[in-house]
Amino acid sequence: MNRLPGTRTLPAWTTRRWLRAGVAVSAVVLALLGGAGAWALGRTASLTDNLVNVKSPALSTSFRLESALLNQETGIRGYGLTGTPDFLAPYRQGLADQATYTGNLSALLHGDRARTQDLKAVQEAAATWQERIARPISTAPAGAPAPVALTRAAEGKATFNALRAALGEQQERLRADRVRAVDELSAAMTLRNWIFATIAVVIAALAVLVSAALRRGITTPLEKLGSDARTIAAGDFDHPISETGPADLRRLSGEIDSMRRRLVRELAFTEEARFRLDAQAADLQRSNAELEQFAYVASHDLQEPLRKVSSFTQLLQRRYGGQLDAKADQYIDYAVDGANRMQVLINDLLDFSRVGRVHHELKELDLEDVFEQSLGSLSVSAEEAEAVIEHDPLPALVADPTQMGMLWQNLLGNAIKFRRPGHTPRIRVGAERDGDLWRFTVTDNGIGIAPEYAEKVFVIFQRLHTKDAYAGSGIGLAMCKKIVEFHGGTIAVDPAYGSDPDSEPGTRIVFTLAAKPPPTPGPYPVEGAADTERGAKQAS
User: Fold this and answer.
1) Burial 355-378 (b: 16+ CB within 10 A, else e)
2) Are the CB atoms for 501 and 374 separated by under 8 Å?
3) Is 374 helix (H, G, I), strand (E, B) or coil?
4) How far apart are CA 412 and CA 25, in angstroms?
5) Among 175-179, 182-186, 350-354, the least confident range
6) Is residue 444 a contact partner of residue 388, using CB atoms and an 8 Å limit?
7) Neighbours of 189 (CB within 10 A)
8) Which of 165, 180, 241, 384 is 20 to 30 Å apart from 475, CA to CA?
9) CA torsion 493→495→497→502, rounded to 10°?
């Protein structure tokens, strides 16, 4: 394929390769987005935990620590001024609370060096106040004001103010840390929301891109290929198949188009062969019609000269028989016998040519009646041979009655004629349904037919015996074959019957007939045939 200068072609990627690349890119993008989303969720959770479990509790614990220290200062001041022991209860409770809150703050601020220093400053200020003021006053005797409270009043006030200043600084820094933690959490949540919105947009964009890529790279080429295939299946075999899409789909389209071109060539060859076959069939039909016309007309035209030859040779035999020498009498006998056999052959040829041409009256008939009529026609030869004829119930068919009569007469006549000397002829006719056909068998115990002659016996004028052994012209089975094929059936000799040396010899003829014969072209018209046949009847 020629490319324009400066143009680039896409690599010949297959559908599988495109899919793998698309899946890999999508997986990388989704993995990155998933990592970003996980990071955003982790950061939000971490900031939330820091705010909820560290910053806020630390600030509130600092307030509680301040309250515990104020309770201590209140108790010490009241005890120092009055000496009443009841004022020591808040002091002692404040000490316990201070220890608890200090421990909690130390745990909450673990790792935060600046806030730990603030807590340490508070603890040092509290220790100074307790050492200089609280413990000396609390150990003074009860019942009277403590002298230390009076002498160290100014110092106590200054040390406790220093403690409160340390607490204030701690609380201010803890409050600032909490505000900063809230701001960081808010920013993290905003970032998280943007990240997840971006993930949703990217996933939607990926879905759109995948859908567009599938439509452009697979669905559209397949639809185009299917459309081209349907156009070709509708009969437009010259319609080319476009090669679009990935490399494998283009290769598939090219292979299908190659198959289409081959089919076009095959169809063209088949069409040409069909035209030739139709022409040959038409030539064969004309040739068959001409041959039948020739056989029919020639046989009729031979009747008259042959009749004259036969008549005059018979006159010679009657008038000069015994007057000439023996050789002349023999020649006259030969001439008379030849003329008579020629007459028989011509009549048989006429009967053969009439099958499917003159006798063409298809109608519903009962084969039982036709079979009985055929037996009546063969009654003399059957009685002379003492033949035993049996048959199954025969069906009703759509057939030509004259041809059916000729079929039964030839088959039964052959079974009677070709009997074994010294044996009573036994003939069995069977009939059974075989799908759309009727299957008939004619079985006898005669001399049989050798397997090598199983097809030759159906050829016209083919004899297996001399005329001295068995009379006839050798046209009977050929006529049976023509009648059966005219009615859409087949006929053959059963090669398995009589082939066993231990079994009784004989012949079985198997033939089939359709319940309704297939449509066949009408008999070919023979010019002058009707006039010739009327002339032959008048002459006879």
Assistant:
1) bbbbbeebeebebeebbeebbeeb
2) no
3) helix
4) 89
5) 350-354
6) no
7) 15
8) 384
9) 150
User: Do residues 403 and 441 touch, judged by C-beta distance below 8 A?
Assistant: no
Please write down the HEC assignment for all residues of 3-25: CCCCCCCCCCCCHHHHHHHHHHH
Q: What is the DSSP string of 103-137?
A: HHHHHHTTT-HHHHHHHHHHHHHHHHHIIIIIHHH
Please, which residues have CB within 8 angstroms of residue 74's CB and are 6 or more apart in sequence? Answer: 87, 90
Residue-level pLDDT at 520: 52
Looking at the chain, how many residues does it have? 540
Q: Residue 12: is its pLDDT beyond 80?
A: no
Instruction: Let me know: does 44 contact 102? Beta carbons within 8 Å.
Output: no
Give the tokens for residue 117: 């220093």
Residue 391: which H helix or E strand, with range?
A: strand 388-391
Inter-CA distances, 535 with 49, 263, 354, 523, Å: 129, 58, 16, 21
The pLDDT, as a whole number, for residue 521 is 44
Task: For residue 431, give the H/E element and its range.
Answer: strand 426-434
**Neighbouring C-beta atoms of residue 35, cutoff 10 Å:** 10
DSSP, res 216:
I
Rounded to whole angstroms, the Cα distance separating 65 from 171 reads: 10
Identify the three-state secondary structure at position 140: coil
pTM of the model: 0.46
| DSSP SS3 for 184 | helix
Residue whose token pair is 């009055």: 82
Cβ atoms < 10 Å from Cβ of 311: 11
- Nearest to 168, CA basis, from 118, 96, 93: 118
125 vs 120, 137, 298, CA distance in Å? 9, 17, 154
- Read off the tokens for 56: 């806020």
Q: What is the mean pLDDT of residues 469-473?
A: 58
Q: What is the pLDDT of residue 240?
A: 85
Q: Torsion angle of alpha carbons 220, 224, 230, 235, nearest 10°?
A: 170
Beta strand 437-444 with 507-514: parallel, antiparallel or unpaired? antiparallel
CA distance 388 to 336: 36
Residues 101 and 202: beta-carbon distance below 8 Å: no
Tokens linked to 434: 């075989």
CA-only gyration radius of the chain, Å? 64
Q: Which residues pair with 391 in a beta bridge?
A: 429
Q: Answer yes or no: are the C-beta atoms of 115 and 109 closer than 8 Å.
A: yes
Contact 480, 493 (CB under 8 A): no
3-state secondary structure of 539: helix
d(CA 193, CA 353) in angstroms, rounded, equals 103
By DSSP bridging, strand 426-434 and strand 388-391 are parallel
What does the alpha-carbon distance between residue 349 and residue 60 come to, in Å, rounded to a whole number?
134
Under 8 Å between Cβ of 228 and 242: yes
SS3 511: strand
